[in-house]
Structures are given as C-alpha cells and as structure tokens.
Amino acid sequence: MVEQVPYINIAWLVPALPLLxxxxxxxxxxxxKHNQAGIIASxxxxxxxxxxxxLYFVLQASxxxxxxxxxxxxxxxxxxxxxxxxxxxxxxxxxxxxITGVGALIHIYSIGYxxxxxxxxxxFAQMNLFTFSMLLLVMGANYLVLFxxxxxxxxxxxxxxxxxxxxxAFNYAARKAFVMNRIGDLGFILGIILLxxxxxxxxxxxxxxxxxxxxxxxxxxxxxxxxxLIGAVGKSAQIPLFTWLPDAMAGPTPVSALIxxxxxxxxxIYMIARSSILYNLAPITLNIIIVIGLATALIxxxxxxxxNDIKKVLAYSTVSQLGYMFIALGLGAYSTAVFHVTTHAFFxxxxxxxxxxxxxxxxxxxxxxxxxGLRKKMPFTYFTFLAATLAISGIPxxxxxxxxxxxxxxxxxxNMIVYVLALGGALITCFYMFRLLYLVFFGEQRLAGAHPHxxxxxxxxxxxxxxxxxxxxxxxxFTTFLQxxxxxxxxxxxxxxxxxxxxxxxxxxLGLVIWFAYRTFVKKAIIPAGDDQPMSYFGRLxxxxxxxxxxxxxxxxxxxxxxxxxxxxxxxxTVLDPVVDGVGTATSRLGTLVRRLQPGNMxxxxxxxxxxxxxxxxxxxxx
Amino acid sequence: MVFLFxxxxxxxxxxxxxxxxxRNPINNVIFLIxxxxxxxxxxxxxxxxxxxxxxxxxxxxxxxxLFLFVIMLLNLNKAIIPHKSRATRILAVITGGIFxxxxxxxxxxxxxxxxxxxxxxxxxxxxxxxxxxxxxxxLPFEMSSALFISAMVGAIMFGKKDV
Amino acid sequence: xxxxxxxxxxxxxxxxxxxxVALFSIGLMGVLFRRNIIVILMCLExxxxxxNLLITAFSAYHSDPSxxxxxFFIMIVAAAEVAVGLSIVVMMKRNVESVDVNLLNRLxx
Lengths: 623, 163, 109
Known about the structure:
Chain A is mainly alpha-helical. Chain A is built from 25 helices and two strands. In chain A, strand 1 and strand 2 (80-89) form a beta hairpin. The longest helix of chain A is centred in the last third of the chain and has 48 residues, at 548-595. Helix content of chain C is 79%, strand content 0%. In chain C, helix 2 (13-33) packs antiparallel against helix 3. Classes of the chains: A mainly alpha, B mainly alpha, C mainly alpha.
C-alpha cells in the first residue's frame, strides 16, 4: 500500500468501543441501575456497527481492495517483527458487520431478557468484552493478533456459559467448553510457530506472498494447515471436539445466540478462509476437512432428531450447519462458506432469540414436550421463528436457500458422494427443524397453568429485524464481493440447467419432508415419549448422543482423575509436604540450637569473646 | 643482670599461677601484691624509674588496699565461694594455654623495627618523663582529671542505698 | 649510668615479649576460671600489668618516651576502673547476696 486510504484510521474505533463499554460497565457495575448497563453496552456495539459501515464506504470510495492500519509496533526482536495492525478488506468487513450488527441486536434483546437478574451488569460487561475480542480476531492483520482475539473469545465463552455459576453443572459445562477449546488452541499455536519458522513472519500479506512460491502438496504446508485445522476444529465444534457446544446451552439464551450461533464458532471458518492460499496448496488437508465436515453435519443432524430440549435441538443444528461450512471450505469454495456463515448468523441468531422468547414466556420451561399451541398467543415470535425455520431448511427465496444451494452445487461439481450425503443431511435438518416448530407452536397447549404472553417490544423488535435479514439477506453476488479477499478454487462450472435441475430435486425432497413432519406432529399429534418410556435400540443410541460424552469421560477424564489423585495422595502428601514442612522445622530447630549461644551468664560470654579473638588471630596469622 | 631478670620473672609467674589456682581471695590479694612488686623490679631494670614508683604507689598502695577493703566488707570466706564445674576449669586452662601458644607463634613472624631515636637510657628519668608529659601529652593529662571526677561520681552513686 | 645503659641491651626484647605473653595468658585463664567477681577483677589487673610491662620494654629499647607516658595513662585508667568496678561489686552483693558471676544471667535474648 503506497498511499493510505483516507479516513481509514478510524478502524481502531471499531474494536475500541466495545472495549470501552466493557471497561465502563465492568468498573462501575455496582453503581449502575436498572437498564443502564444494557443501554451503554448496546450503544457501544451499535456505534461499532456504524463505524464498520462507514469503513465499508470509505474502502469502496477509495477503489482499493484492502487497507492495513498499524496501531503500534508490538514485538520487535531482531528478525521477528510483529506490528499490532488491523487489516480492512472485504472478508474482514463482512465479519465485522455481522458481529456488530447481529451483536447489537442481541445486546438490545438481552436488555429485556436479562432484566431482573442480579448480575445483569457483569453480563453486559462480559458481552462487550466478547465483542471486542471477536472484532480483534477478524480485524487482525497477522496471525498473532488473530490469536489474541481467539483466546479472548474462548475466555468470554467460559465466563458467559458459566454465568449462572451457582449451579455446578453449568460450571462443568463452562470448563468443558474451555478445555476443548484449549486442545484446539494447542494445535493452533503449533501451527503459528511452524508458520513463523517457515516464512519468518506471521503477517498475512507476507505469508501469502511467500506461499505462492511453494509447491502444492509440500509437506511443511500440509503440516501447517493441519495444525491450524486442529485449532479450527476445537473452536468451531467439529468432530471430535464438538461435545462442548450442546452443553454450552447452560448459559443464558442471548449468549447461545451470539457466541454459539453467530460469531465465536465461525472463527474457525474465518481463519481457514483467511488462509485460503495456504489451504489451496495442501489438497490432503482439504480432503480431511471435507470428511470432518460431512461427519459432523450428519452425526449432529441425526442426534438432533431425538432431542427434546429446545436449545439442545438448536445447538445440534448449529453443529450440523458448521459441518456444512466445513464441507464448503474443504471443496475450496471459501467464499461460499463465508456466505453461509453470514446467512447462518442471521437465522440461527433469530432461532435462538425466538427460543429465548418462548422460554421467557413459558416461565423457564425448556422441554418441547410440554409446550404447544403458542402460535396464537405469541404471533411475533411465531412468524419470525417460521421465517428462520424456512431459511435453515433451504426454501427459496429465503437467504438460507441461496447459501446452502451454492454449497450443494459446488459439492455436485466435485464429488457425487459428498453431494448425496450433504443433501441427505439437509433433509434431516429440515425434518427436525419443522418438528421443533410444530411441537412448540402448533397443537394444544400442554403445559397446565402457564399463561404465555408475547415478549416485550425490546425483545421482539430485534427478532423482526433479524427475520427481515433472514428473508432478504441472500444475494449470490456476495461471493464475488468476497473474491478479492479469499482465493476460491474455480472448478468447472456446471451448466445453468443442471443447477436448476438440482434445485428442483432438492425442493421436491424438502417438500416431502415438510409434509411428512406436518402429518406426524400436527395431524396425528404424536408427541415424543417421555424419558422413562421404552425406546427402540437405535432410538436410544441417538437419544443418548451416541454415548460420545461417556466415551470421552472414560477415555480422558477418568485416567486424568486417577493421575491427579495419585499425584495428590502419593506425591504431595508423602514427598512435597514433608519436605516443605521439614524446611520449617529445620529452621526452628536450628534456631533453638543457636539460642544456646546466649545463655546470659557472664563467664560464657567471656569465654566466647576469648575464643573469637583466638580465631581471629589465627586467621590473621594464616592468611 | 640477666640472673636478676630471670629471678624476677620466676617470682612473677609463680605468684600469677598461684593467684589463679588459689581458693581463698585474701591469698589471691597477697599473691597479686607479690606480683606487682616483682613488676616494679622489672621497671627498675628497664630504668623506668618514674613508672616504678608510680606503680608501687598506685597499684600496690591504692588499688590492692581497695581490694582488701572490699573483700573484708563483703565478708567472703571459703565456704560460700562457689566453684565452676571441672570441665569448665579444664577448658579454661586449655584456652589459656592455646592463647599463649598462638601469641608466641605470632611473634615469630614479626619484623624487626629499627629504633627511631638514638639510644639513651635517660628516658625513664622523672625529668624526661615530665618534659614529654607536659609538652606532647598535656591535653590527655588534663582530661584524665575529668576521667577521675566521673569515676568518683560513679563510684559514689553506685554505693548509695537509693539511687 | 653507662652500665645501666649497656645493661638494658643485655636482655633481648624477645624475653620480655614472652614474659608478657605468659602473664597475659595466665591472667586470661584466671578470668575464665574463677567465679568470684573480685578475683576476676584482680586477674584483669594482671592482664593490664603484663601489657604495661611490654610497652615499657619497647619504650626502653627504642628510646621512645611516649611509651612510658602511655603506660602512665593506662595506670590512671586502670585505677579509675577498679574503683567503679568495685562499687558495682558492692551493689551486686547488696542485690543478689552473692558474688557469683553466674548469677548475673539476665543478659540474654
């Protein structure tokens, strides 16, 4: 960049404003009354959004594709030069707008949802801190600034999941999330180290320009991309590190919406999309990504079929959709993946917020077997939820249709098996989402004694805005917008007619599934059985999430527990404690011994004096 | 002359040993007086006439008499004098012996100092002592009177029944 | 006088040093050895005197008068010190009813 883009220096305001919000609400949180914390936090995020939009126009007006804003010289040791710089290009702008836009809506929604909680001020402080970290992640101009944001969102995720910390099960869930993230982080750090050793720099521009000179399939690139992939797998809840996300539903619903639907879990996808040049040089890793993404998408969707907690269903659908994004990444269609990130942010946030509205209305009840008939009582929630369900199922002209269809057509271009399996996953998705919709909103009200009412306007207005985005937010020209930032693989384009044919096939199957769901849950009004009813073997397998949690506990938690017990009982009690205590006892005994030197009687003192003088003289004589 | 020196030395050392090893304090005082007189003899051998006389007057005449008075006043006799344990006594003797040996060994490494002034034997005479005392050492001489005053005041204060 | 002057140089200085050291260590032995305060003070006087003898011997051999003046001052100080020391002994006898030095054992930690 020879000349700077004018006004680009306001870029630092975008992450700084939520940080300021965090500091204000975090430091004076005892004094803030009522809604003040929420209003301050929301205003900060809204301002961030406006500045991000301004940055978009600034970049557009300058005609450039990207701009770097260096804030200060961070690490400068000999040949390691890492400035603290922000990169503004189309990819980071997209993510910034999503984070601040959807984030602002969720903040406003939380003002209503968390009203009356006794720690509501710290809630908003933590949400702002999260927004700041996420913005730092997407705006970083090198891997290290990205990693700062990466760690920051991990921390905030832990804080927010375990927000109601009085319940030990919630604490366990928060710890689980953090530890699984950490496993991924280890891989990420190894990747960055290897990156630095290979390219002598971690700045994106340096790395990518140097990478172009390498041979595709070089082992070092494959290793780097694999390590980075491990990090993404941990953060974006892919197999095998996905069990933390359903448990993370222990946190308040806005947290699930912001962190586990719209933003944090997409950090992995953003990182891989950003490193698209590296991944294009490592076809082995790309294949691994496809496999992981497919497995995740299918397994999560199957588990979601039998879940009875409204938030758990949405959690598994998030994992499944993330699998789809990974499939897109693995196929080399990076901009498609980011497109799906955008639309998914809209409708998944909407789904979670709507679920929160339902939970709020039902007085905290989350089991869908006890809900029903909310269609008439909560019209706003129902219609927005319907819009989001249609979007996630891929019905045109909703936004989800465009992004999911693009993924399916790219899969069709490359590999038939992938296409068929992905299509199957899409159908399962549609089925369980409509199952959710029908069981919650249709039929008779099953919960006795509840008086569900529509949520207050501060909660419904964000729902409406998000639903508008879900409906009209899909624009396939979006991928060309991203073209300047990510280098997608250009495969052989399928002809237009084939594409129409694919769309028709998928629409047909989707229609069948929706009709089947309608028949099951509305006409026949079949309600899923309670927990104590006998289930078929396969049903039980799915209902218990394929026992993956139990396997992990047996494989990892129990041995570590034994190891730490061993260290505590054997090593600490028999070795370390006596040694430390022994030092103290030895000192005290030494003191007792030395105390005998001052008995008080004169003759001993005289004696000691004479002995001292003798030694002194001898010393002088010898030396 | 040399014989005189050795005899005086023998008297001194024997009486010193007897001081240390005798139980009766009165006997100790007597032996100390004998030792002092022998020392006065040594001073005269060295032609330090002024010092010899002052030594006899001050030490033997004043200080020993003081000791005797105090012993008399305190009414000490052999019965109530406690003794130290055997081990301590042996240790004390050994320490003294080692001290002696170490100091003797130290003197073997001394360097010969050549005298500053030409040799005269007159310096012990009262006239010479007086000259040096009132020329170079006048101030210490006068300050010693202050020392005596404070010693007197201190001794009297200690002796009072209620301070 | 001439005989005196030559007589002084007959006895070598080492003899005086040895004599003085012997007296000093005997006095030291007495200080460590005895439990009667008065006898300890007497042995202290013995040590003083041995030093006096040594300084006088040096002064005679090097014909330096300041040595003898110094001995004079030592005697002055010793006299004052004995006076005060003995009055302390009297006070001790009045308080503790004994002259055993081991009974003064309050000077500890």
